[in-house]
Amino acid sequence: MDLTSYAELAVLLVNSEEPLDSLDGARRFLVEAGRAAHAGRLTREDLRVLRELRAELAAVFAAAAVRDEEGVVERLNSLLVRRPVHPQISRHDGQRWHLHLTEGGRLGDEYATGAVMGLTALVTELGVDRLGLCQAAPCRRVYLDTSSNRSRRYCSERCASRANVAAYRARRRELSGRPA
């Protein structure tokens, strides 16, 4: 079972610009996250769960960004206690039978369980340093570093390019003796 796709749920939620201040906002987020089929089941309780989960997951990535391994593990363990995993065999969207991680029937709980379990599996299998906070100023988006050499530093190619161009221009200014 590939839990990286579940860990991506955490990234999508933390990075979403949707304020999650209404059911419509949460539905827009679910569409953005590729979960449009689930949007019809959304309740106010799911909205509350998603808002709380976003803050908790952002704290996990923030702890990882400062290399606070104990803090990451403590936060994930706290989330795991509140989000027990219940595997379930499922088939949808023309796919074969496969394993889903769920907690009851609420959409918010299912999303939370998948995101937390995905991050937990990634951290235990690959390490805390695989959770990243984009190093391109002023971006604060998060990412999962699944590169083979643990070299990812940016959330996207756009941020990487912007940071590289800024560094190049800074070097050129320094070489020409002009003030920054």
Q: What is this structure's SSE topology?
A:
Blueprint: H1 4-15, H2 23-32, H3 44-65, H4 69-82, E1 86-90, E2 98-102, H5 107-126, E3 131-133, E4 142-144, H6 157-176
Antiparallel strand pairs: 1-2, 3-4
Helix tally equals 6
The dominant shape is globular
Please give the largest β-sheet.
2 strands, antiparallel
CATH architecture tag: Orthogonal Bundle
Please give the domain count: 1
Distance between the termini: 50 Å
**CATH topology description:** Jann2411-like fold
Would you kindly provide a brief summary of this structure?
The chain has 180 residues and is mainly alpha-helical.
Folded structure, characterized:
InterPro entries: ABATE, ABATE_dom_sf, Znf_CGNR. Residues 130-172 form the Zinc finger CGNR domain. This is Putative RNA-binding Zn ribbon-like protein. The protein has 180 residues and is mainly alpha-helical. The chain has a single domain (4-176), classed as Jann2411-like fold. Helices cover 54% and strands 9% of the residues. The protein contains 6 helices and 4 strands. Helix 3 packs antiparallel against helix 4. The chain is globular and about 65 Å long. The mean pLDDT is 90.
